Amino acid sequence: MSPESTGQNEHYLTVYRRGFRTWRGNRPFWAGLFTILGGLPIAYFPYANMHLGNMTIAMSTTAGAGSLIIGILLITLGFTMWFHHIVRVFAGVAAILLALISIPVANIGGFIVGFLFSLLGGALSIAWAPADAKGAPASEGHRAQMGRGEAPQGPEHPKEFPETAEAPRKPMLFKAATAEADGGRHRAG
């Protein structure tokens, strides 16, 4: 082994940082973080007490329970974006809807701060796309083709089941009838 080999004598913080960077790159990390940060003020402000000298101002309202539920749901959606990124679009749409609902229910959306963070987190979650094996976003090729005015191309490999002259494709009208005739199963099973 050469003294220049990597990984053997690295500091443990460097190893953890690289692991966290890899974990963060495989999911909508910033979307989840902004959604969690948006849920905190929405859930906190209705139960907070501000002290101005000897005077205490209580922010508790009749909508305190609704604010708490909206805030906890936003925090849960933020963690969902991190740990179950396959449902990122649902979590993003739900975060945007809860942020909008928080305006009339939760003290103007946690004094606008929680509303803006939740809205930004939901939008980032919807817009996030997983990277392909090379590390580039999956839809980058289609964006480049659309920017040049070209139509997006299909997969690079040919069709798996090409049509032949002996077996033309059936019209969509008869698809339901064939599915009912064989009990909804395909031919192999």
SSE arrangement:
Elements: H1 12-25, H2 29-44, E1 49-52, E2 55-58, H3 64-83, H4 88-105, H5 107-111, H6 113-127, H7 140-147, H8 175-181
Antiparallel strand pairs: 1-2
Helix pairs in contact: 2-3, 2-4, 2-6, 3-4, 4-6
Q: Which key terms come to mind for this protein?
A:
mainly alpha; 54% helix; 189 residues; single chain
Write a brief caption for the model:
The protein has 189 residues and is mostly helical. It contains eight helices and two strands, in the order H-H-E-E-H-H-H-H-H-H. The longest helix has 20 residues, at 64-83.
What is the string of SSEs from the N terminus onward? HHEEHHHHHH
- Total strands: 2
Tell me the radius of gyration: 26 Å
- Globular, elongated, flat, extended or rod-shaped: what is the shape? flat
**Ends distance:** 55 Å
Number of helices: 8
**What is the percent of helical residues?**
40-55%
The percent range for strand residues is under 5%
Q: What structural category do the secondary elements indicate? A: mainly alpha
> How is the biggest beta sheet arranged?
2 strands, antiparallel
Low-confidence stretches: none
Mind explaining what this structure looks like?
The chain is mainly alpha-helical. It is 54% helix and 4% strand. It has eight helices and two strands. The protein has helices at residues 12-25, 29-44, 64-83, 88-105, 107-111, 113-127, 140-147, 175-181; strands at residues 49-52, 55-58. The protein has a two-stranded antiparallel sheet with strand order 1-2. Strand 1 (49-52) and strand 2 form a beta hairpin. Helix 3 (64-83) packs antiparallel against helix 4 and helix 4 runs antiparallel to helix 6. The protein is flat, with a radius of gyration of 26 Å. The termini are far apart.
